[in-house]
Every structure is written in C-alpha cells, then in structure tokens.
Amino acid sequence: MTRIRSQPDEDRIAAFDDLMAEAMASAEYFGHRQHIHLTWMAVRKYGVPAAVSLVSEGIQRTARYEGAPQKYHATISRAWVELVGHHMAEDDAETFAAFTEHHPSLLDKRLLTRFYRPATLASTPARTGWVPPDLAPFPWQEANH
Q1: 55-74 pLDDT per residue, tens
Q2: CA–CA separation, 69 and 60 (whole Å)
C-alpha cells in the first residue's frame, strides 16, 4: 500500500484527483456508484485509515469548489469508506465490477439507514464530524460485542 497521510497537501490533492478521474472516466456525474468506486480504489491503494482521510478531504474540497460545501457530510463519507474497507477485507476481487457483484448492497445509497436513524444523519454533529451508528453496529463491530 502507498503511504498518503504523511505526503504534502499537493500530493494528497493529486492522489484524490487521480482517483476521481478514474472513477469518473465513464460517468457523466458523480453519483453513488462513482463514490463507491473512488472509495474502493482509495482503500485498495492506501488502506482504510488513509482512505478515510483522503476521500473525506477530497470530497469536502470538491464540494467547496463546486460552491456547495453543505453537500459534504463527515459521517457519511467515513462510514462508506469503512463499509467498503470491511467488505474488501473479506474479498480479493481484482476489479470494481467483481467487487460490486459480490457486494451489491454497497450500491444501495440507502444502506446506511440500516445503521443510522435519519435524524442522526441529518444532525449537525454527524454532518461536521464522526457519529457512530445508533440503530445497529457495523458488521465488524458486532464481533466485538
């Protein structure tokens, strides 16, 4: 895995931009599938902890650039990276298509409602920082209970 956390900001921006370009190569807009694809590539290349930071910072920067900073959501960004990372740890799929074929639930943008109440996700604390699930634990948390 490539180290990204200790790289200068310019390198981190370039790394995100490269991933975004690849995720958008055959798409007209950045939808949920592209978000999951970008996340899959980031986790594959950098690992979950670095991908959380890289994807979150990149999406937040992109939202600001597009004049829509309110579209960035800290909890949702981190939760998707952790969910993708969890499934990648169980799956050695070489392609994104194979990965999503094995884990189609990740393409359902409502998946987080299994773990979070809508009011929780709509809250300011969840939008601006990390809030743990309040409906059900994530799959990797269940093993710890």
Answers
A1: 999 999 988 988 988 889 99
A2: 7
